[in-house]
Design goal:
single chain; about 30% helix; alpha+beta; Aminopeptidase; 6 strands; about 150 residues; globular; 6-stranded mixed beta sheet
């Protein structure tokens, strides 16, 4: 999908360094090797789509991960697992283009809704999602517990 000055395309493993760098902009401490390993675990899974916005000069402006969810309590849906647009590319339609591509993928995957989670401190992101037609369906807490393999 071509846009003004950039293209939305599937992510490839060689994007790992750029993706890791973008993650760092939002405080996610991840190294390219971690991104490459996690990419390899989802790249061939039909329930996942990994996309990048690539500038004509090859720079990666942003990335998005969307995956199908199959829950007993809600219709077949898709969830945005991650969306990061570089600080220099925000407010130029890159995030909206990535989200539109995710929605298109979700429709093609038979999903009836797209869901996403956003940290309460990211108020600019909340306004962005609302401009795209998303509504805050609920507020919840996320709990985590590290487990050993």
């Amino acid at each position: 999908m071509a846009k003004d000055g950039y293209t939305i395309r599937p992510m490839v493993v060689s994007d790992a360094g750029h993706v890791a760098e973008l993650c760092g902009e939002l405080g996610y401490d991840v190294v390219p090797a971690d991104v490459a390993e996690r990419f390899a675990g989802t790249a061939d899974d039909q329930d996942h789509a990994l996309l990048v916005a690539e500038a004509m000069d090859g720079a990666i402006l942003g990335w998005l991960h969307v995956h199908r969810t199959k829950l007993l309590v809600s219709p077949r849906g898709a969830e945005i697992g991650g969306l990061i647009v570089g600080s220099g590319s925000r407010r130029h339609g890159v995030g909206a283009a990535l989200m539109a591509a995710a929605e298109e993928w979700a429709r093609g995957a038979g999903c009836q809704l797209v869901r996403l989670r956003s940290n309460v401190v990211r108020t600019d992101a909340h306004a962005f999602y609302e401009r795209l037609g998303y509504m805050n369906a609920k507020t919840s807490h996320t709990f985590e517990k590290p487990i050993q393999a």
